Here is the input.
Amino acid sequence: MAGSLTGLGLVAHDRGDLTAAHDYYTRALAIEERLAPTSLAVAGSLDNLGLVAKDRGDLTAAHDYHTRALAIFERLAPTSLTVAISLNNLGGVAHNRGDLTAAHDYYTRALAIFERLAPNSLTVAASLGNLGVVANDRGDLTAAHDYYTRALAIRERLALNSLDVAGSLNNLGNVAVKRGNLTQAHDYHTRALAIYERLAPDSLTVATSLNNLGFLALKQAPDVRRGALLLFLRAVEIVEAQRGKIQSAEARALLAEQHTNKYTGLLRAHLALNDLSAAFATIERGRARSLVELLAERQIDFRADAPEDLLKRQDELERQRSITYASRRRLDPNKSDAGVRDDDQGAKLRAEIERLAREQRDLTAEIQRKSPKFAALQYPTPLDFKRAQAALDPGTLLLTYFVDDEETFLFTVTPDDRRGDGERGRRGDGETGRRGEQGNGLRLYRIKVKAKDLRELVLEFRQALAAQGAVNRRGRELYNLLVRPAQALIDQAERVLICPDEVLHALPFGALVTSPPAPLLTGEGSGQQRNRSAKQRLPSPVRRGAGGEVYFADLKPLHTIVSMTTYAELRHVKRVPVSPRPPVPASPTLLAFGDPVYAKAGDANARGLNFAPLPGTRAEVEAIAKLYGKQASARLGADASEANAKKELASFRLIHFACHGRLDPFSPLDSGLALSADANNDGLLQAWEIFQHIKLNADLVVLSACETGLGRTTKNEGIIGLTRALQYAGAKSIVMSLWSVSDESTAALMTAFYSELKKGTSKDIALQRAMATVRKDPKWAHPFYWAPFVIAGEWR
Here is the structure.
């Protein structure tokens, strides 16, 4: 039975049906582990599951599967072909992770075994092809061409017109493109596509082949470029069809991340045809889709539909995750996982966390499959330009960034009330501003900065901020690159909504320095309300710093979002019914947590956490609570507990956490807020717990803690961490931090922020004014003290 299931899995995998392949392989593995644990059959199924995980983009799971398989093979059949196959598979994972040295080592070891035991075989051809890919990525085109040609000769002799032959043809086509031989490249890629279409129609390999031909067409004459659009469109449609078969939102995101180049190709094809609206829609189509779908799923109570046995499995899985996370934290309580020593115990705990994460994804998918409501769920479609424009409030300017390997794109969108304003198709500081339809509110600026260079610029800027060093030069450079091209539109806007991409998620836009400085004006302070009439807009009053500099945060109130589709969804998140709670104030508005009790390292209740006390947060919470009087509930000391947070959060409109934050870039859903512990809770309110258990009715959640706006950054989904979890839970806006904050200056900033909110000031202007207030104190003039906080979500 297991053998038959494996055979069906292989067929499904070759057809490109990754969901069916995973199901077949998983069922086969369950039988093999029951009847022949640690056997060669088990290792084979682990390798198969690793290949599916790799194709889905889950490289962590793939590495784990292949490593477990290799250990069995090396114990039971050392120096065998099966060992070489596992080495090859691990090489593929290392390559996808960008570790070319490790990939070359795995592939070379595998080739040595293949050539000794199966000379001139298809397995030898596979190893040669893999080494060719590494050589190609290293820029050694001569070696790459040699490896690929040798592999193709073997494959054409032993398996003519097979999928393996198509793979070699694709590889040779890529080398031909780099060598500038476009005619030869077109021939190779066309032959490869014909094979894929016949043997594996609508598979991801077809999508990749279409993508290759699409990029090739973009390099040629205008009449040929038009055909690129159809190639890219079909490639994206195939990826989205495969993605739609996956029930886990996280697994869908991983697959999409592996195929972002299909969306990049489609974007470039639309730009080649000067269709800005379609290019903008392509960005929305490929961005934050999983988060949007999670927001839609939020309305379904899966626990109400799930069978009892699945709920028991869920509860047990959560118990195991809590224990394992705490065990890993005990390895080094002062560091996030990125700094934990990687000894045998640490490696085992990492592997266990990865296993539990995979089990959670599989269990979630099973619960969803058995939910009748899930079957009827309709996911929101990505917004096109017109609907995105309609979602903007009057006076709001949208800046949407797309970071590509060779350049960065900035799309600006103004709402309908701004049609015709400003300079259409404006060119700025050397960047090309390409316009769309006259007066439609959409413009494009192509910024000549590569992704690699942009990452370095942002990293240098953040390092200077962290060291409280000189930031003006780099701040001006980044402003001129990223913002100044749209200056005419910014000058007319009342507020700016920023949709960042890649490394820009970690960039504090408010700390960028305008250059040349904006004119110094008098007035009541930055961000005051202005007449919304397009013909009567007043210039923004700004304040200069001690050195005469003007920051972006001085010019306009700012807020951020991962996509306009997400923005629209967050604004329409349905409120959840509040179940009976402990008594709260008659008109509950604000719930604030501060000065939690932290156990000392070594205490039985430390649970692997070791945080210094934060007495300043008590004064911060007391000052904020005083502003709201009876409408506020302050939870201080032992009452600032994880247990109280879980019980009370759904009852309040404003929620404030003044505490330590814990960032875990390796396992972002382990990131959390450090509150007081009790007998049943370790005190760390983690992102995964928020996803599982917390429902909010909050207009605003403020995370007055360190690095709460960071996590693992993905090309498609943005930052995965606390912010994402709170948005899923129901928060319409989140104030979060981009670095470790100062306790004293943060308390002053938060008090000023809530003072403005209490007056009825909008969130974005309240934060802008709070920053200006903090900067008045000379010891806090540096952006390190006032610029770490940003607003994600609604501005109102």
In short: The radius of gyration is 28 Å. Residues 333-342, 418-438, 517-541, 577-586 have pLDDT under 50 and may be disordered.
